[in-house]
Protein backbone atom coordinates (compact mmCIF):
# COMPACT_ATOMS: atom_id res chain seq x y z
CA UNK A 1 0.00 0.00 0.00
CA UNK A 2 1.18 3.54 -0.76
CA UNK A 3 0.68 5.02 2.68
CA UNK A 4 1.35 8.60 1.57
CA UNK A 5 -1.40 8.51 -1.05
CA UNK A 6 -3.77 6.81 1.39
CA UNK A 7 -2.96 9.32 4.16
CA UNK A 8 -3.85 12.13 1.74
CA UNK A 9 -7.18 10.47 1.00
CA UNK A 10 -7.89 10.21 4.73
CA UNK A 11 -6.75 13.78 5.46
CA UNK A 12 -10.12 15.61 5.34
CA UNK A 13 -11.79 13.10 7.65
CA UNK A 14 -8.77 13.19 9.95
CA UNK A 15 -8.94 16.99 10.18
CA UNK A 16 -12.54 16.68 11.39
CA UNK A 17 -11.47 14.29 14.15
CA UNK A 18 -8.52 16.45 15.13
CA UNK A 19 -10.63 19.60 15.36
CA UNK A 20 -13.30 17.83 17.39
CA UNK A 21 -10.59 16.75 19.85
CA UNK A 22 -9.11 20.25 19.79
CA UNK A 23 -12.42 21.89 20.67
CA UNK A 24 -13.11 19.44 23.51
CA UNK A 25 -9.87 19.04 25.45
CA UNK A 26 -9.68 16.87 28.57
CA UNK A 27 -6.73 16.75 30.96
CA UNK A 28 -5.08 14.21 33.22
CA UNK A 29 -6.13 10.63 33.76
CA UNK A 30 -9.86 11.04 32.99
CA UNK A 31 -10.50 11.36 29.26
CA UNK A 32 -14.08 10.06 28.82
CA UNK A 33 -15.11 12.09 25.75
CA UNK A 34 -11.72 11.82 24.08
CA UNK A 35 -11.66 8.04 24.37
CA UNK A 36 -15.33 7.82 23.32
CA UNK A 37 -14.36 9.48 20.04
CA UNK A 38 -11.29 7.22 19.68
CA UNK A 39 -13.45 4.13 20.24
CA UNK A 40 -16.14 5.27 17.79
CA UNK A 41 -13.44 5.60 15.12
CA UNK A 42 -11.94 2.19 15.95
CA UNK A 43 -15.48 0.72 15.66
CA UNK A 44 -15.83 2.40 12.27
CA UNK A 45 -12.48 0.89 11.15
CA UNK A 46 -13.43 -2.59 12.45
CA UNK A 47 -10.57 -2.64 14.98
CA UNK A 48 -11.13 -4.37 18.34
CA UNK A 49 -10.01 -2.65 21.54
CA UNK A 50 -10.44 -2.61 25.28
CA UNK A 51 -9.66 -0.36 28.19
CA UNK A 52 -6.33 -1.06 29.85
CA UNK A 53 -7.54 -2.42 33.21
CA UNK A 54 -9.53 0.28 35.02
CA UNK A 55 -7.86 3.22 33.23
CA UNK A 56 -8.97 5.40 30.33
CA UNK A 57 -6.10 3.96 28.28
CA UNK A 58 -7.37 2.21 25.14
CA UNK A 59 -5.43 -0.82 23.84
CA UNK A 60 -5.80 -3.43 21.14
CA UNK A 61 -3.95 -5.41 18.50
CA UNK A 62 -4.11 -6.07 14.78
CA UNK A 63 -2.10 -8.21 12.39
CA UNK A 64 -0.98 -11.77 13.10
CA UNK A 65 1.29 -12.64 16.03
CA UNK A 66 2.21 -16.00 14.45
CA UNK A 67 3.89 -14.22 11.53
CA UNK A 68 6.45 -12.24 13.53
CA UNK A 69 7.12 -9.83 16.36
CA UNK A 70 4.87 -7.37 18.20
CA UNK A 71 5.37 -3.63 17.80
CA UNK A 72 3.72 -1.15 20.16
CA UNK A 73 2.43 2.12 18.69
CA UNK A 74 1.56 4.68 21.35
CA UNK A 75 -0.22 8.05 21.22
CA UNK A 76 -0.88 10.39 24.14
CA UNK A 77 -4.35 11.92 24.17
CA UNK A 78 -4.51 14.44 27.04
CA UNK A 79 -4.58 18.25 26.87
CA UNK A 80 -3.04 20.92 29.14
CA UNK A 81 -4.71 22.85 31.98
CA UNK A 82 -3.97 26.23 30.38
CA UNK A 83 -6.08 28.52 28.16
CA UNK A 84 -5.65 28.78 24.39
CA UNK A 85 -5.04 32.33 23.12
CA UNK A 86 -4.98 31.74 19.36
CA UNK A 87 -7.76 32.86 17.07
CA UNK A 88 -9.01 30.24 14.63
CA UNK A 89 -12.23 28.43 13.76
CA UNK A 90 -11.89 25.54 16.19
CA UNK A 91 -10.36 26.95 19.37
CA UNK A 92 -10.87 25.12 22.65
CA UNK A 93 -14.44 25.32 23.93
CA UNK A 94 -13.40 24.45 27.48
CA UNK A 95 -12.22 27.14 29.85
CA UNK A 96 -8.55 26.84 30.88
CA UNK A 97 -7.98 23.60 28.98
CA UNK A 98 -6.41 23.26 25.55
CA UNK A 99 -4.50 20.92 23.26
CA UNK A 100 -1.34 23.05 23.25
CA UNK A 101 1.06 20.10 23.14
CA UNK A 102 -0.52 18.66 19.99
CA UNK A 103 -1.78 15.44 21.55
CA UNK A 104 -4.99 15.91 19.53
CA UNK A 105 -2.72 15.56 16.47
CA UNK A 106 -1.00 12.47 17.92
CA UNK A 107 -4.34 10.79 18.67
CA UNK A 108 -5.59 11.53 15.16
CA UNK A 109 -2.36 10.30 13.56
CA UNK A 110 -2.52 6.98 15.42
CA UNK A 111 -6.12 6.55 14.27
CA UNK A 112 -5.02 7.18 10.66
CA UNK A 113 -2.10 4.76 11.06
CA UNK A 114 -4.36 2.04 12.48
CA UNK A 115 -6.90 2.48 9.71
CA UNK A 116 -4.19 2.11 7.06
CA UNK A 117 -2.57 -0.86 8.80
CA UNK A 118 -5.98 -2.52 9.17
CA UNK A 119 -6.56 -2.10 5.43
CA UNK A 120 -3.14 -3.66 4.89
CA UNK A 121 -3.52 -6.25 7.65
CA UNK A 122 -2.93 -9.40 5.57
CA UNK A 123 0.42 -7.96 4.43
CA UNK A 124 1.72 -7.29 7.96
CA UNK A 125 4.45 -9.71 8.97
CA UNK A 126 3.68 -9.63 12.66
CA UNK A 127 1.46 -7.90 15.17
CA UNK A 128 0.71 -4.26 16.01
CA UNK A 129 -0.30 -3.41 19.55
CA UNK A 130 -1.67 0.09 20.07
CA UNK A 131 -2.16 2.38 23.04
CA UNK A 132 -4.04 5.66 23.39
CA UNK A 133 -2.66 6.97 26.68
CA UNK A 134 -3.98 9.49 29.24
CA UNK A 135 -2.05 11.84 31.55
CA UNK A 136 1.20 12.29 29.63
CA UNK A 137 1.40 15.87 30.87
CA UNK A 138 1.52 14.71 34.50
CA UNK A 139 4.53 12.55 33.51
CA UNK A 140 2.76 9.74 35.39
CA UNK A 141 0.43 8.33 32.72
CA UNK A 142 3.05 6.12 31.08
CA UNK A 143 4.04 4.78 34.48
CA UNK A 144 0.43 3.84 35.22
CA UNK A 145 0.16 2.10 31.83
CA UNK A 146 3.19 -0.04 32.74
CA UNK A 147 1.74 -0.83 36.18
CA UNK A 148 -1.57 -1.79 34.58
CA UNK A 149 0.08 -4.21 32.16
CA UNK A 150 0.75 -2.51 28.81
CA UNK A 151 3.99 -4.52 28.57
CA UNK A 152 2.16 -7.88 28.91
CA UNK A 153 -0.37 -9.92 26.92
CA UNK A 154 1.04 -9.53 24.36
CA UNK A 155 4.51 -8.35 25.33
CA UNK A 156 5.81 -5.82 22.77
CA UNK A 157 9.25 -6.43 21.24
CA UNK A 158 9.66 -2.77 20.33
CA UNK A 159 7.83 0.54 20.49
CA UNK A 160 7.21 3.64 18.41
CA UNK A 161 5.70 7.03 19.20
CA UNK A 162 5.87 10.55 17.81
CA UNK A 163 5.47 14.18 18.81
CA UNK A 164 4.57 17.40 17.04
CA UNK A 165 7.39 19.90 16.63
CA UNK A 166 5.80 23.29 15.80
CA UNK A 167 9.13 25.16 15.95
CA UNK A 168 10.43 23.20 12.96
CA UNK A 169 10.93 25.31 9.85
CA UNK A 170 8.80 22.97 7.73
CA UNK A 171 6.56 19.93 7.89
CA UNK A 172 9.15 17.18 8.13
CA UNK A 173 10.29 14.12 10.06
CA UNK A 174 13.12 14.41 12.60
CA UNK A 175 14.67 11.26 14.03
CA UNK A 176 17.36 10.94 16.68
CA UNK A 177 19.47 7.76 16.76
CA UNK A 178 20.25 8.05 20.49
CA UNK A 179 19.06 10.42 23.25
CA UNK A 180 15.79 12.16 22.32
CA UNK A 181 14.46 13.91 25.42
CA UNK A 182 15.68 14.46 28.96
CA UNK A 183 14.75 12.78 32.20
CA UNK A 184 12.66 14.81 34.64
CA UNK A 185 12.70 14.82 38.41
CA UNK A 186 10.04 17.20 39.75
CA UNK A 187 10.25 17.77 43.48
CA UNK A 188 8.96 19.78 46.44
CA UNK A 189 11.02 20.75 49.50
CA UNK A 190 9.39 22.00 52.70
CA UNK A 191 11.76 23.62 55.21
CA UNK A 192 10.50 24.02 58.76
CA UNK A 193 12.20 26.51 61.05
CA UNK A 194 10.99 28.73 63.87
CA UNK A 195 9.50 32.11 63.05
CA UNK A 196 10.69 35.27 64.78
CA UNK A 197 10.97 39.04 64.51
CA UNK A 198 13.28 40.08 61.70
CA UNK A 199 15.30 42.15 64.17
CA UNK A 200 15.97 39.11 66.38
CA UNK A 201 16.88 36.17 64.13
CA UNK A 202 18.73 34.48 67.03
CA UNK A 203 15.30 33.94 68.66
CA UNK A 204 14.21 31.65 65.79
CA UNK A 205 15.48 29.32 63.07
CA UNK A 206 15.30 31.11 59.73
CA UNK A 207 13.95 28.82 56.98
CA UNK A 208 14.55 31.51 54.32
CA UNK A 209 18.27 31.47 55.09
CA UNK A 210 18.24 27.66 55.05
CA UNK A 211 16.40 27.69 51.69
CA UNK A 212 19.11 29.88 50.17
CA UNK A 213 21.80 27.49 51.45
CA UNK A 214 19.92 24.52 50.00
CA UNK A 215 19.52 26.16 46.58
CA UNK A 216 23.23 26.99 46.47
CA UNK A 217 24.35 23.70 47.97
CA UNK A 218 22.25 21.53 45.71
CA UNK A 219 23.83 23.09 42.63
CA UNK A 220 27.17 21.66 43.77
CA UNK A 221 25.83 18.25 42.69
CA UNK A 222 25.94 19.48 39.09
CA UNK A 223 29.11 21.52 39.37
CA UNK A 224 31.24 19.12 41.45
CA UNK A 225 29.79 15.62 41.19
CA UNK A 226 28.83 15.09 37.53
CA UNK A 227 31.25 14.78 34.61
CA UNK A 228 30.97 17.91 32.49
CA UNK A 229 30.08 15.85 29.39
CA UNK A 230 27.26 14.08 31.27
CA UNK A 231 25.51 17.13 32.66
CA UNK A 232 22.16 17.80 34.25
CA UNK A 233 20.15 20.92 35.03
CA UNK A 234 18.57 21.92 38.31
CA UNK A 235 16.00 24.72 38.52
CA UNK A 236 14.02 25.73 41.59
CA UNK A 237 11.38 27.86 39.95
CA UNK A 238 8.98 28.25 42.88
CA UNK A 239 9.81 29.52 46.34
CA UNK A 240 7.26 30.63 48.92
CA UNK A 241 7.67 31.92 52.45
CA UNK A 242 4.11 32.13 53.77
CA UNK A 243 3.75 34.56 56.66
CA UNK A 244 7.08 36.21 55.96
CA UNK A 245 7.33 39.99 55.68
CA UNK A 246 9.96 42.71 55.57
CA UNK A 247 10.51 42.32 59.30
CA UNK A 248 9.05 38.86 59.93
CA UNK A 249 10.96 35.58 59.62
CA UNK A 250 8.37 32.91 58.71
CA UNK A 251 8.41 29.38 60.11
CA UNK A 252 8.16 27.57 56.74
CA UNK A 253 9.56 27.84 53.23
CA UNK A 254 8.33 25.77 50.27
CA UNK A 255 10.50 25.22 47.21
CA UNK A 256 9.51 23.42 44.01
CA UNK A 257 11.80 22.57 41.16
CA UNK A 258 12.93 20.21 38.46
CA UNK A 259 16.11 18.47 37.38
CA UNK A 260 16.70 17.25 33.82
CA UNK A 261 19.37 15.16 32.14
CA UNK A 262 19.92 13.23 28.93
CA UNK A 263 22.10 10.73 30.81
CA UNK A 264 20.46 8.06 32.98
CA UNK A 265 23.47 7.73 35.32
CA UNK A 266 23.50 11.49 35.96
CA UNK A 267 19.74 11.57 36.55
CA UNK A 268 20.17 8.70 39.00
CA UNK A 269 22.95 10.52 40.82
CA UNK A 270 20.92 13.74 41.22
CA UNK A 271 17.93 11.70 42.34
CA UNK A 272 20.00 10.08 45.13
CA UNK A 273 22.06 13.09 46.19
CA UNK A 274 19.41 15.83 46.19
CA UNK A 275 17.50 14.54 49.26
CA UNK A 276 20.81 13.91 51.12
CA UNK A 277 22.06 17.46 50.53
CA UNK A 278 18.72 18.93 51.54
CA UNK A 279 18.53 16.90 54.74
CA UNK A 280 22.08 17.66 55.83
CA UNK A 281 22.04 21.36 55.04
CA UNK A 282 18.77 21.74 56.95
CA UNK A 283 20.23 19.84 59.92
CA UNK A 284 23.41 21.94 59.84
CA UNK A 285 21.25 24.98 60.51
CA UNK A 286 18.89 23.32 63.08
CA UNK A 287 15.95 23.29 60.62
CA UNK A 288 14.01 20.32 59.32
CA UNK A 289 13.41 19.64 55.64
CA UNK A 290 11.11 17.21 53.89
CA UNK A 291 11.61 16.17 50.28
CA UNK A 292 8.84 14.87 48.03
CA UNK A 293 9.11 13.56 44.46
CA UNK A 294 6.18 14.95 42.41
CA UNK A 295 7.07 13.09 39.21
CA UNK A 296 10.07 11.21 37.91
CA UNK A 297 10.56 10.03 34.35
CA UNK A 298 13.69 8.58 32.73
CA UNK A 299 15.46 10.09 29.73
CA UNK A 300 13.90 9.01 26.45
CA UNK A 301 16.53 7.13 24.47
CA UNK A 302 16.13 5.72 20.98
CA UNK A 303 17.92 2.51 20.04
CA UNK A 304 19.94 2.80 16.82
CA UNK A 305 18.61 -0.08 14.70
CA UNK A 306 14.91 0.78 14.83
CA UNK A 307 15.83 4.47 14.49
CA UNK A 308 17.78 3.77 11.29
CA UNK A 309 14.86 1.69 10.03
CA UNK A 310 12.43 4.51 10.84
CA UNK A 311 14.64 7.05 9.05
CA UNK A 312 14.81 4.80 5.99
CA UNK A 313 11.08 4.00 6.02
CA UNK A 314 10.12 7.67 6.33
CA UNK A 315 12.41 8.56 3.41
CA UNK A 316 10.97 5.69 1.38
CA UNK A 317 7.34 6.73 1.87
CA UNK A 318 7.69 10.52 1.87
CA UNK A 319 10.13 10.71 -1.05
CA UNK A 320 10.57 14.27 -2.25
CA UNK A 321 7.39 15.48 -0.55
CA UNK A 322 8.74 15.97 2.97
CA UNK A 323 12.28 16.09 4.32
CA UNK A 324 13.42 13.36 6.69
CA UNK A 325 16.52 14.16 8.75
CA UNK A 326 18.48 13.02 11.74
CA UNK A 327 18.20 15.39 14.70
CA UNK A 328 19.75 16.19 18.07
CA UNK A 329 18.12 15.76 21.50
CA UNK A 330 15.97 18.35 23.23
CA UNK A 331 15.75 18.95 26.99
CA UNK A 332 11.99 18.61 27.38
CA UNK A 333 10.67 15.34 28.88
CA UNK A 334 8.13 12.75 27.80
CA UNK A 335 6.47 10.05 29.84
CA UNK A 336 6.61 7.50 26.98
CA UNK A 337 10.09 7.00 28.49
CA UNK A 338 8.40 4.99 31.28
CA UNK A 339 7.34 2.50 28.59
CA UNK A 340 10.34 2.80 26.24
CA UNK A 341 12.86 2.18 29.04
CA UNK A 342 11.42 -1.37 29.39
CA UNK A 343 11.50 -2.17 25.66
CA UNK A 344 14.50 -3.75 23.89
CA UNK A 345 14.02 -1.36 20.97
CA UNK A 346 12.24 1.96 20.62
CA UNK A 347 12.02 4.93 18.28
CA UNK A 348 10.32 8.21 19.16
CA UNK A 349 10.41 10.80 16.41
CA UNK A 350 9.36 14.39 15.85
CA UNK A 351 7.00 15.61 13.15
CA UNK A 352 7.57 19.21 12.12
CA UNK A 353 4.22 21.04 12.27
CA UNK A 354 4.85 24.79 12.04
CA UNK A 355 1.87 27.07 11.48
CA UNK A 356 2.92 30.74 11.67
CA UNK A 357 0.37 33.23 13.04
CA UNK A 358 -0.68 36.46 11.25
CA UNK A 359 2.65 38.05 12.29
CA UNK A 360 4.62 35.12 10.90
CA UNK A 361 5.59 33.83 14.35
CA UNK A 362 5.65 30.21 15.50
CA UNK A 363 5.60 29.14 19.13
CA UNK A 364 6.78 26.09 21.06
CA UNK A 365 4.42 23.53 22.57
CA UNK A 366 2.72 24.63 25.85
CA UNK A 367 2.62 28.24 24.64
CA UNK A 368 -0.98 29.62 24.67
CA UNK A 369 -0.41 30.84 21.09
CA UNK A 370 0.98 27.64 19.57
CA UNK A 371 -0.74 26.32 16.43
CA UNK A 372 -0.13 23.11 14.53
CA UNK A 373 0.06 22.56 10.79
CA UNK A 374 -2.49 19.86 9.91
CA UNK A 375 -0.32 18.78 6.97
CA UNK A 376 1.68 16.99 9.69
CA UNK A 377 -1.21 14.52 9.95
CA UNK A 378 -0.30 13.25 6.48
CA UNK A 379 3.48 13.18 6.89
CA UNK A 380 3.32 11.74 10.43
CA UNK A 381 0.80 8.98 9.71
CA UNK A 382 2.46 7.88 6.46
CA UNK A 383 5.88 7.77 8.15
CA UNK A 384 4.63 5.80 11.15
CA UNK A 385 2.59 3.32 9.08
CA UNK A 386 5.55 2.65 6.78
CA UNK A 387 8.05 2.42 9.64
CA UNK A 388 5.79 -0.05 11.49
CA UNK A 389 5.19 -2.19 8.40
CA UNK A 390 8.90 -2.27 7.53
CA UNK A 391 10.01 -2.96 11.10
CA UNK A 392 7.78 -6.05 11.29
CA UNK A 393 9.04 -7.19 7.88
CA UNK A 394 12.72 -6.69 8.74
CA UNK A 395 12.73 -8.09 12.29
CA UNK A 396 11.12 -11.49 12.04
ZN1 LIG B 1 3.36 18.67 26.75
ZN1 LIG C 1 3.39 16.46 24.45
Automatic annotation (TrEMBL):
Occurrences of domain Peptidase M20 dimerisation (ranges): 184-284
Alphabetic keyword roster: Hydrolase, Manganese, Metal-binding
Record note on cofactor: The Mn(2+) ion enhances activity.
Names of the cofactor(s): Mn(2+)
Binding annotation for Mn(2+): 101, 103, 137, 163, 366
Top-level taxon in the UniProt lineage: Bacteria
Keyword Hydrolase: yes
Cross-referenced Gene3D superfamilies: 3.30.70.360, Zn peptidases
GO terms assigned for molecular function: hydrolase activity; metal ion binding
UniProt-listed CDD domains: M20_Acy1
Protein name (Swiss-Prot/TrEMBL): Amidohydrolase
Amino acid sequence: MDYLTRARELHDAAIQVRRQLHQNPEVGFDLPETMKLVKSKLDEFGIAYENLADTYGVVGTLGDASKGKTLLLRADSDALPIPEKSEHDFVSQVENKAHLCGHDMHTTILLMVLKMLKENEDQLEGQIKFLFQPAEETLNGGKLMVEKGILENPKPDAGMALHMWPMSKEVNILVSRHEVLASALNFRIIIKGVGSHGAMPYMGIDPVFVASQIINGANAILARELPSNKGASLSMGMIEAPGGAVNVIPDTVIIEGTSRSLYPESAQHVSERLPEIIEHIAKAHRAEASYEVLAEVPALINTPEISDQTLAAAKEVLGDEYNVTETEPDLASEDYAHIASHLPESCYFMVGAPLPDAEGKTYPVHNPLVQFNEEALVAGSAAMAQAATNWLRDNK
